[in-house]
């Protein structure tokens, strides 16, 4: 497992720190003793993990748009980060259809703005651009996509994240080839975990249905996805960023996903969720007529990160759902969310 002591006293910038992944990543780094600055829009959901967990108290939180280059550049100038995690994005497939222009502006030009700030700085040594498993040209294969497979994207979200990958590649070759700055991209699978309140995500949708005493409807129950707990990719991100900080040979593109046995259909995921939640809850198939394209089968081959960094998934899908439900019930009962985050992070790092 990753030795988080590497991050003690390191100056770290996280874009998108008010989001679901960003909040968990901020918490891990704060606990590790890093000097964390976050740059993001204000949280868009109510409730949201960033506010209910009190993460803001342990970091410098800057509310700003990733498309505001001047404000972003001033943040770099003031905080002088050594390590940058770029998570800021419009992350929802369906919102990409609703607002394609904003999706491209955020996901493509946001990446340009980050890399331009890095190019003009003298402090950054390690950059990780977080993209998605959906960057690949989808062939509906039943085997996992590898890092060298063709990129694509049939919807604005997926395509914009592919563009973000191309932007990163171009900047690396044009401006950082002979520098001491290491830059990688990470393509993670679908994440679940406590504190996700996003729209159009399956587990948050299930929880909202339970809270409203409504039926759980599942839009694409036969779709296969690489579901994993949010801590899985975050530890992967931290591993990549720390190792390439020490040695530039480790920069590149990395898949981060579950073992093949945990790549299940959305229907199987919801069925398992219902059994673990209890109280006799159940689900039904949603007669979706939106005609929005979504891949039917999506898996990742994670051989590269396993071989290079000896990284392996820690929690299987049953454990991941159990921890998600445990967190949610603590939140619903008015319990200590911050303490639960710390407990889960500790258990994960210790491999429990």
Number of helices: 12
Question: Compute the gyration radius: what is it?
Answer: 19 Å
Order of helices and strands: EHEHEHEHHEHEEHEEEHEEHEHHH
**Helix-and-strand structural type:** alpha/beta
Multimerization status: single chain
Distance between the termini: 12 Å
Low-confidence stretches: none
Shape: globular
Beta content comes to 5-15%
Number of strands: 13
What is the helix content? 40-55%
Please summarize the sheet with the most strands. Answer: 7 strands, parallel
Question: Can you put this structure into words, describing what you see?
Answer:
The protein is of the alpha/beta class and 352 residues long. The chain contains twelve helices and 13 strands. It has helices spanning 20-31, 49-52, 69-79, 93-98, 100-120, 156-175, 202-211, 231-246, 266-277, 303-309, 317-332, 337-349, and strands at residues 11-15, 35-40, 60-63, 83-86, 126-130, 182-188, 191-192, 216-218, 224-225, 228-229, 253-256, 264-265, 283-285. The strands form four sheets. The protein has a seven-stranded parallel beta sheet, sandwiched between helices. Helix 9 (266-277) packs across helix 11.
Record the SSE blueprint:
Layout: E1 11-15, H1 20-31, E2 35-40, H2 49-52, E3 60-63, H3 69-79, E4 83-86, H4 93-98, H5 100-120, E5 126-130, H6 156-175, E6 182-188, E7 191-192, H7 202-211, E8 216-218, E9 224-225, E10 228-229, H8 231-246, E11 253-256, E12 264-265, H9 266-277, E13 283-285, H10 303-309, H11 317-332, H12 337-349
Parallel strand pairs: 1-2, 1-4, 2-3, 4-5, 5-6, 6-11, 7-10, 8-13
Antiparallel strand pairs: 9-12
């Amino acid at each position: 497992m990753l030795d988080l002591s590497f991050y003690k006293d390191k100056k770290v910038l996280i874009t998108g720190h008010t989001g679901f992944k960003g909040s968990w990543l901020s918490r891990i780094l704060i606990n590790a003793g890093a000097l964390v600055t976050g740059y993001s829009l204000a949280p868009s959901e109510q409730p949201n993990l960033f506010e209910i967990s009190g993460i803001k108290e342990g970091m410098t939180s800057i509310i700003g748009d990733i498309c505001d280059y001047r404000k972003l550049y001033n943040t770099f100038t003031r905080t002088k980060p050594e390590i940058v995690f770029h998570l800021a994005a419009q992350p929802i497939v369906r919102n990409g259809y609703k607002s394609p222009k904003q999706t491209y502006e955020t996901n493509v030009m946001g990446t340009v703005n980050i890399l331009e700030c890095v190019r003009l700085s003298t402090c950054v040594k390690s950059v990780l651009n977080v993209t998605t498993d959906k960057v690949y040209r989808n062939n509906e294969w039943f085997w996992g996509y590898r890092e060298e497979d063709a990129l694509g994207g049939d919807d604005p979200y997926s395509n914009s994240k592919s563009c973000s990958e191309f932007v990163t590649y171009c900047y690396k070759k044009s401006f950082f080839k002979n520098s001491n700055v290491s830059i990688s991209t990470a393509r993670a699978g679908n994440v679940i975990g406590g504190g996700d309140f996003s729209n159009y995500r399956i587990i948050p949708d299930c929880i909202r249905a339970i809270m409203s005493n409504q039926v759980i409807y599942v839009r694409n129950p036969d779709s296969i996805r690489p579901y994993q707990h949010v801590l899985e990719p975050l530890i992967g991100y931290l591993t990549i960023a720390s190792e390439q900080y020490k040695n530039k040979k480790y920069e590149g593109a990395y898949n981060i996903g579950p073992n093949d046995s945990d790549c299940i259909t959305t229907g199987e995921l919801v069925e398992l969720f219902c059994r673990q939640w209890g109280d006799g809850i159940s689900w039904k198939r949603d007669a979706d007529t939106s005609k929005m394209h979504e891949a039917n089968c999506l898996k990742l081959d994670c051989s590269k990160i396993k071989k290079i960094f000896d990284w392996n998934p820690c929690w299987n899908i049953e454990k991941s759902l159990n921890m998600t439900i445990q967190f949610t019930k603590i939140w619903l009962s008015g319990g200590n969310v911050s303490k639960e985050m710390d407990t889960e992070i500790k258990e994960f790092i210790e491999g429990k």
